[in-house]
Every structure is written in structure tokens, then in C-alpha cells.
Design goal:
Layout (H helix, E strand, L loop, with lengths): L11 H16 L15 H13 L22 H17 L1 H15 L3 H25 L13 H13 L4 E3 L2 E4 L13 E4 L7 H16 L3 E4 L6 H13 L8 E4 L5 E2 L16 H18 L8 H21 L7 E2 L2 H4 L7 H18 L15 H7 L2 H11 L2 H21 L8 H13 L1
Parallel strand pairs: 4-5, 6-7
Antiparallel strand pairs: 1-2, 2-3
Helix pairs in contact: 2-3, 2-4, 3-4, 4-5, 6-7, 7-8, 9-10, 12-15, 13-15, 14-15
């Protein structure tokens, strides 16, 4: 996500898939480090800063003679930024002079002009607080909250080193790394490190981030969970990193790309008015739909308001996350809340329903008996065999960064359990050893 801009549905897939891949790799035995890598150093900040300077020229942040300290409380809220950025972006598209002001403000910010930098720090603080609220709801975790700006101080030395070693060259006033090789049969544009105005690019910060990660962690793998449409960018960055010897040949660099989330019309998911939908609005829609489903199924009618709201949130998040993760990440998919919140079919709520059913069964039985002997029968054999597939499923999901493989396994397991449960009288089974075996099976599922 970007600083100074609201999180929208376009940030959903990277967050959910990235977190799932991290969890899978951790479960497989890797030491993982999840880094959000904020878009916090780009032109949108220059747009917002220049817009605020035009609206509030008397603010001390714009007084070049002011030496500080600057206020500790932000003069803008996330709600303010949600209005300011679109207005500034529109103005920059319509007026070249206005765009030049934004570009100059971006360069000044990246050169750490004191007032601009202090104001930008407020943008980061209020933006991150807003992001964390969304991620907490989605149960998405990050170990590092770094961004493009985190490596800014590494860039000058990195570029100088690459120039001295002949990898970075000047081209029409810009500094670039040519990444095309003689074996290529198509054009590969050079990776731009400095634009003609001296500003840095995504490629610059991404390359410096590799330098930082190798220095700090010496990772075996660096996996980028980013929209598939950025594949050329990552090809350029990875080529530059290997060409310049910034990573060892053994270090894996992977772009785990993903497709788009579309509405029922097959086009990228939008609001009814045709605008980009905020992530928190999508979650709210999911909660509302979940509440409707709970009422239809007469679930939780006897619960208090707080507990019922908690259940609705869990159902909504399960629906949203499983809807995304069950698809091959490369593929586009249709997001249909009506279908995804159902308690049957290949949905998150269906998996929750089976899990709740098992928990309820085990509670009624008083739990699982330790050391119970496993007694396979015709009724449960297919379910036991399905459970044994997990190591193979996990290996494939880990190798290919493919949560959908695990989702499919979980769904087939839920289906098989539902069939077993419907055909087997577990709690009334008179044979105690058989009953104990089935309870172990339920717990394992």
C-alpha cells in the first residue's frame, strides 16, 4: 500500500496471498520475515505536499527558514488525505505546471528538506495506523514495516559503486543499468536509477532493498508478492541484481505474481459508482452479507450483540480470504459476495461450519482420549487416506508459492468429513474403542 492514500481492493490480494505464503513457508520449516514494503517515497507524496503548500502557505512546514522542532501532532488526518490526494492527482493530470510543482516537491522530499520531511513523517504515521486496522481485521501479519524510504541512504553509495564498476551508465541525462543480453530476442528496457531531474525510481529502491536484505539477513529466498502486471519491472530488477553481483547465484529471487479481482461483470472490482472501492468498505459489505446469512440459517439468534457481531466478522473475513486464496494466484477471479458467503460449496464459511461442527462434537464427547487405538473402517478409511496427503500437498504449495493447493485440500477434507459425519453415529457408538478412534479422526481433521 501507499502512504497518503487509502487502502483499496487492489491491496487485498498482495496482503492475503503474501501472508498465506509466509505462513506456509514458516510451517514448512523456513525462518520467514514478512516485509510490507510501503510505497512511501513516490510522487504521490510530492503531489500532497505541494497541494497542502498551495492551500496552507503559512504552515511552518513550508517556511525554509524554520529550524524546528516541528509539531508532534499531524495537521492532517487519514480522512483529509483521502480528499487531498485525489484532488492533487487530478490537478497534476490537467496542468503541467502543477505536475512540475509536485515533481519538484518529490525531489525536495527525497533530499530531506526539513519541513517537507517532517510533514511526510505525519503522512506515514496516520497512514500506517489506518493500514494496521485493516490488517488486524484480516489477520495479516508483518514483521517489518519498511518502505522505499528505508533504503534511501543506501542509494547514493550503491549507484556510485555501480558506476565505478561500469554497470551503471549515463543515458540522456538519466543514470541506468542496461539489462538486455545478446541472447534476448525481445527488448528489455534498462533499469533507471536516477531520472533526469535527480529523482529515484521504484527500480532504484527495489535494488537498494536487495542490498539491505542481503546485508541484514543473507536470505536464501526473496519472494515478491505483487501484481502480475509488474513482471517486466521485476525481470529488470532481478537481472540488474545478478549482473551487478548484489546477490549470490544461490539466492532465489522470485516474483510470485497474481491476477486481478473482478466483479460479476468480469471487470476490475469497483464501487457501484464506478470508483475504486476502499478495502474497509469491502470488509463492511462482507460483514453485512454475513449477518444476512447468519439470520437465514438461524445461527446465533440466542447470542448477545457483541458475540454475534464477532461471528459475522469471522464469517466475512473467511469468505473474503478463502475466495481469494482458493484460486491459482496467477488467474483473475470473480468476486461475488452473494456466493462467497454461503455456508455450502467451496467457500470460507463452509470450512468454518465444518470446523465448528467438529469442535461441538469433541466438546460433547469430553475431548479426545490419549493413546486411543486407531481402528479404520469402511466408513472412515477415505478420510484417513485424505489426511495422509498433507505432506505432499504442503510440499507442492511451498515449492510453487501456491495457497490454492492447500485450499483445495482443506475443502476436499471438509467435504469428506461432512459425508462421514452424516453417515456415522459417532457419539452413540456403543463400541468405546471405535468411538475413541473416530474422535481422534475428528480431532485430526
Amino acid at each position: 500500500p501507499n502512504v497518503a492514500k487509502s487502502m483499496h481492493v487492489g491491496h487485498l490480494r498482495s496482503s492475503i496471498i503474501g501472508d498465506s505464503v509466509r505462513r506456509i513457508l514458516s510451517f514448512a520449516g523456513y525462518k520467514t520475515i514478512g516485509d510490507i514494503h510501503l510505497g512511501d517515497w513516490g510522487t504521490q507524496n510530492g503531489m500532497v505536499i505541494s497541494e497542502l503548500e498551495m492551500r496552507h502557505p503559512d504552515w511552518i512546514y513550508f517556511d525554509k527558514d524554520f529550524t524546528g522542532p516541528y509539531p508532534s501532532v499531524s495537521p492532517v488526518s487519514m480522512e483529509d488525505l483521502e480528499e487531498i490526494y485525489p484532488a492533487a492527482s487530478k490537478a497534476c493530470k490537467e496542468d503541467e505546471t502543477r505536475l512540475f510543482k509536485a515533481q519538484q516537491a518529490t525531489v525536495d522530499l527525497q533530499n530531506k528538506r526539513a519541513g517537507y520531511y517532517a510533514l511526510w513523517q505525519h503522512f506515514v504515521t496516520v497512514s500506517v495506523l489506518s493500514m494496521k486496522r485493516n490488517f488486524e481485521v484480516l489477520n495479516v501479519h508483518f514483521d517489518l514495516w519498511k518502505g522505499e524510504s528505508s533504503v534511501h541512504d543506501l542509494i547514493k553509495g550503491m549507484v556510485s559503486d555501480l558506476q565505478e564498476r561500469g554497470f551503471a551508465v549515463e543515458d540522456d541525462g538519466a543514470v541506468v543499468i542496461p539489462v538486455k543480453t545478446n541472447e534476448d530476442d525481445k527488448k528489455y528496457p534498462p533499469l533507471i536509477l536516477y531520472k533526469r531531474d535527480g529523482a529515484v525510481m521504484y527500480g532504484t529502491t527495489d535494488l537498494a532493498t536487495i542490498v539491505e536484505r542481503v546485508r541484514d539477513f543473507n536470505p536464501a529466498k526473496i519472494v515478491y508478492v505483487v501484481d502480475q502486471r509488474q513482471s517486466l519491472h521485476f525481470e529488470q530488477v532481478f537481472r540488474a541484481a545478478r549482473l551487478c553481483g548484489l546477490v549470490s547465484p544461490e539466492t532465489e529471487l522470485t516474483h510470485a505474481g497474481f491476477g486481478t479481482m473482478n466483479g460479476r461483470d468480469g471487470k476490475p472490482f469497483k464501487t457501484r459508482e464506478g470508483g475504486v472501492m476502499k478495502l474497509e468498505d469491502l470488509i463492511a459489505m462482507g460483514v453485512q452479507k454475513a449477518e444476512e446469512r447468519l439470520s437465514e440459517a438461524n445461527i446465533g439468534a440466542d447470542l448477545g450483540e457483541e458475540e454475534r457481531c464477532d461471528i459475522a466478522m469471522k464469517v466475512a473475513v473467511a469468505a473474503i480470504k478463502f475466495a481469494d486464496l482458493q484460486n491459482d494466484r496467477i488467474a483473475d477471479y470473480i468476486f461475488d459476495l452473494d456466493r462467497l458467503t454461503l455456508f455450502e460449496g467451496k467457500t470460507g464459511p463452509y470450512l468454518l461450519y465444518q470446523a465448528v461442527r467438529i469442535k461441538s462434537l469433541l466438546e460433547k464427547a469430553g475431548g479426545v482420549r490419549r493413546g486411543a487405538k486407531i481402528i479404520p473402517t469402511d466408513a472412515d478409511r477415505s478420510l484417513w487416506l485424505l489426511l495422509t496427503e498433507l505432506p505432499e500437498i504442503l510440499a507442492v504449495a511451498t515449492k510453487n508459492y501456491a495457497p490454492h493447493i492447500l485450499c483445495d485440500h482443506a475443502f476436499r477434507l471438509a467435504q469428506a468429513f461432512s459425508a462421514f459425519y452424516g453417515n456415522t453415529h459417532i457419539l452413540s457408538e456403543p463400541h468405546e474403542q471405535q468411538k475413541a478412534s473416530w474422535l481422534v479422526l475428528c480431532h485430526s481433521v
